[in-house]
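Note to self: the last two entries modelled the partners one at a time, which told us nothing about the interface. This time every component goes in together.
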Amino acid sequence: MNDDMPIRFTLADEGFDASLLADKLTDLRAGARVMFDGRVRNHNEGSAVECLEYQSYPAMALKVGQGILEEEARKYGLLRVRAVHRTGALEIGESAVWVGVASAHRGAAFDGARAIMERLKYELPVWKKETYRDGRIDWVGPDNKSAETGLGKAGDVPEWDARIHGIYLSDGHDFRGRHGLGRQDHGIRAVDAVECVAGMGLRGDRYFGMKDDYKGQITFFDARVVGEIREKFGLPDLSAAAFRRNVIVAGVDLSQWVGRRFTFQGVTFEGSEECKPCYWMDEAVAPGVEDFLKTDSGGGLRARILSDGVLKVDQPE
Amino acid sequence: MTTFTVLYFGLLAERRGLAEERVESTARTSAELYQELDVRHGLGLSTNHFRVAVNDEFAAWDGEIKSGDVVAFLPPMSGG
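The predicted structure of the combined assembly is written out below.
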């Protein structure tokens, strides 16, 4: 691979020289460089750490890491990005991960470097095994909790820390099954709250009770993406309703929840699949939106409803 | 019966005692395959709490798998 690529993620199975990486961030358009150096510390959750080891899934880690860098570079307007994650055995004080970015101004550089680092922690297929001074060994999960405690226990389902900007329901299908026939025009209603019925869907919505175990009982869409499309397509007044997804949420990365359970406002859901954008998006919103959602942001999350409850808008737009 | 290549990482690799194996199974989805292996080897994690990849791409647990697929069980990741 060309080592002069402006954006590049790599894995290193032995110590690396950060000054060589920093050199790769040189760009005369850049007024700011931010570099983060994550090191092995001598304690975790109150236990003295002797050493640690990172195992990786290289084929996926390289692809996922590169994808994160490219997505965040686009989002923050970063000119150059380098990141390296170590694998193998590490001593206390060694660099485990290094992220460096260059951009025109410092705001984007700080924010972009931070965003990349947060995503690497949760999304990069690498696993940390700590050996403690007292001889215990533990596979560590995200947030440095043990991967065993807090996992696999019945009822222990992670909770979304997110806000609802809007909830939308529609009585009928505008697009589904109408290839070649043109859209219909069922109204879409903004509501302040909606009843979630386990296994059925949202009461009053077109997909309610559609079929057993239906994958799309509820759809979530990221408020950030609504904002990006308004900006990119010059549609400042575009309603979030135009996407025909049910719940517009802020503060959660929807791509992380396919195949996982979560609770949100006391209701339990299970992500079933990405809500793939289709060509109707260009008609429903604006030409080019389908491709934008495919390449950048995803079309949202489809989920099953596992417990009854009510979702309420708590941060109206 | 179809043949899959199964990859284990982190905690799951340790519990299984190996990182990779070929598995003959009638499973049609990743979830069914994991459940079968969990029963056989006592892997112990619930699919609610970790992710699966098929042929090096994140996948849905209820997505179909076919003969020759590489199915990787990815316990919660811990980079950084």
